[in-house]
């Protein structure tokens, strides 16, 4: 994970994914208040705090506040943040999704190093999946670097399965694996 085994990557080369903790969805709550963290929809007012976390997790590759704001306000895009209760809380994690029709793409997910391996990424995903399901999404897609074992294991625990491969997609000729999760069943949409 970021800080121990390097940042986890997801998405195109300039759009790495995030450091992800182990899943706790199977044994605990999926969203809401947990260990002092509230998961809520992200707003443009959160862009600077998300960008600050991006810079810590992905030095030299993190999104700027303008990029985050664009992602939060673009067509079919939504985000969720985990933070302290209250107006504009400090942000410990975030997820950004883009939904078009019945497909939602996981654009970005990140969790502060001090919050990793506590189930926060799983709770963020659960909140995001509930939100995009309400918008009509039936499946979620993402890309992850083949050499990113920690992220691949996390996504497998969350129920994602590999459906395709993009050769030499990332820097240093690393393949991208395209993963899918069916929202109705928690399995590959084609199953």
UniProtKB/TrEMBL annotation:
Gene Ontology MF term list: acyltransferase activity, transferring groups other than amino-acyl groups
Alphabetized UniProt keyword annotations: Acyltransferase, Transferase
Domain of life: Bacteria
Domain spans labelled N-acetyltransferase: 37-184
Keyword Transferase: yes
Low complexity bias locations: 15-25
UniProt-listed InterPro entries: Acyl_CoA_acyltransferase (IPR016181), Bact_Acetyltransf (IPR050832), GNAT_dom (IPR000182)
Region (Disordered) residue spans: 1-28
PANTHER family: AMINOALKYLPHOSPHONATE N-ACETYLTRANSFERASE-RELATED-RELATED
Designated name of the protein: GNAT family N-acetyltransferase
Organism of this sequence: Nocardioides jejuensis
């Amino acid at each position: 994970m970021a800080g121990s085994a390097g940042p986890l990557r997801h998405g195109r080369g300039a759009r790495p994914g995030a450091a992800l903790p182990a899943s706790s969805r199977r044994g605990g709550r999926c969203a809401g208040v947990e260990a002092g963290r509230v998961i809520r929809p992200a707003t443009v007012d959160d862009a600077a705090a998300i960008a600050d976390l991006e810079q810590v997790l992905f030095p030299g590759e993190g999104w700027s506040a303008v990029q985050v704001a664009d992602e939060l306000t673009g067509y079919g895009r939504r985000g969720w943040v985990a933070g302290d209760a209250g107006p504009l809380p400090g942000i410990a994690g975030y997820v950004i999704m883009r939904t078009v029709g019945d497909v939602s793409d996981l654009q970005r997910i990140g969790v502060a190093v001090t919050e990793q391996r506590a189930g926060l990424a799983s709770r963020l995903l659960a909140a995001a999946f509930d939100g995009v399901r309400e918008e009509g999404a039936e499946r979620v897609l993402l890309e992850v670097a083949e050499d990113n074992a920690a992220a691949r294991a996390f996504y497998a625990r969350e129920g994602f399965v590999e459906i395709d491969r993009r050769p030499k997609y990332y820097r240093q000729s690393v393949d991208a694996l395209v993963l899918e999760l069916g929202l109705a069943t928690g399995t590959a949409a084609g199953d």
